[in-house]
């Protein structure tokens, strides 16, 4: 392992060890690994990069994702989660990039000072030329959605159950109801079935699934597991252990409809009710956050509202595919390196316009487009999600009365992120009096 050096003992506040790095990456999952790797390729010496990871090993959430389906876009082959992250860990080690595992980042200041603590180093202050936020995301819990009932054993988030089964060898239950049709929940429906449990149903409060279509087909349809759309769990019953749950149909306002209650006997409830970008550090640093995505507001270079602080991966927006996380993180690592190397003068005197979600669009990342005074705008990658499921539509990207892109889509659904590339040639049209860039989903 490559380790950062710091004093081992601290006797007073004045003795707190400090280090200086050109780039500090917070998070050693797929986003952080890719960002650090690309920063070294862009010209930063590997010894001047530090990855801080709170787990005991690199790899992040992919370490517990033993199912296949990763890497199809990036590597052109189907890999498991550990295989995908393992390739990047090998590349990071070969490059000689420093990392510290078992280290918890405690804070990031506006002047890019990162404080962290670990058993190996104690409390450390690390000054960075640039910081890349790559902390990932966390799951919503029962408390976040407020399900009534008792508080028995047997209620797990889907990710916790995944760790128990795949890494600890523990089967959480035998008769399972899953609330929420996020990808982790769908994958765990299959995984629990393969381990001998009976998955009774998956309930989704929305009228559409929030997971990928391929996961619905491969994880539910192939195993005969019913998906109840516009349904939710309205009560948990049981004392020491879950004995059953009450599920109800909901109306257009997502309120339970009286008289539609159905009791399902089970011993386990798995929650797959959404992911939240892990942005406590971002918030304390004063980074502006997006109310919809929960992640930082960034420009096309993935720089946040604080100069020299960049964000990528699930801390920025919750992704469907790790392949897209990797490409996005490459961009963040490259931009962070250029910032440190003094190649970001295009910000001087630049004009900034917002990227505005239009008809049928829930959010857009990046939220801001930087238009340099003299240098080219360059290629702009837009990621966005729809507000509902639409069929036979066009995605229109426009600015200043000009349509930059018009893309036909047979199906657009909130469960699958959409993306669009504005070429360097087209992005120059943003100079022509554009006050905003807008994305709309319209009927054919």
Spans of at least 5 consecutive residues with low confidence: 5-13
- Overall mean pLDDT stands at 93
Outline type: globular
CATH topology of the largest domain: FAD/NAD(P)-binding domain
Oligomerization category of the chains in this entry: single chain
Could you explain how this protein is built, in words?
With 444 residues, the protein is of the alpha/beta class. The chain has 3 domains: 1-139 and 276-343, FAD/NAD(P)-binding domain; 141-273, FAD/NAD(P)-binding domain (3-Layer(bba) Sandwich), CATH 3.50.50.60; 349-444, Immunoglobulin-like (Sandwich), CATH 2.60.40. Helices cover 20% and strands 34% of the residues. It has 9 helices and 27 strands. It has helices spanning 30-41, 81-95, 142-145, 158-168, 183-194, 213-220, 280-285, 322-340, 424-427, and strands at 18-26, 49-52, 68-70, 79-80, 98-100, 104-108, 113-118, 122-133, 137-139, 155-157, 175-179, 198-204, 227-229, 231-238, 242-249, 262-265, 268-271, 275-277, 309-311, 351-357, 361-365, 368-371, 380-386, 390-399, 402-412, 418-422, 437-443. The strands form 7 sheets. Strands 1, 2, 5, 6, 7, 8 and 19 form a 7-stranded mixed β-sheet that branches. A hairpin with a 4-residue loop joins strand 6 and strand 7 (113-118). The longest helix is centred in the C-terminal third of the chain and has 19 residues, at 322-340. The N and C termini lie far apart (55 Å).
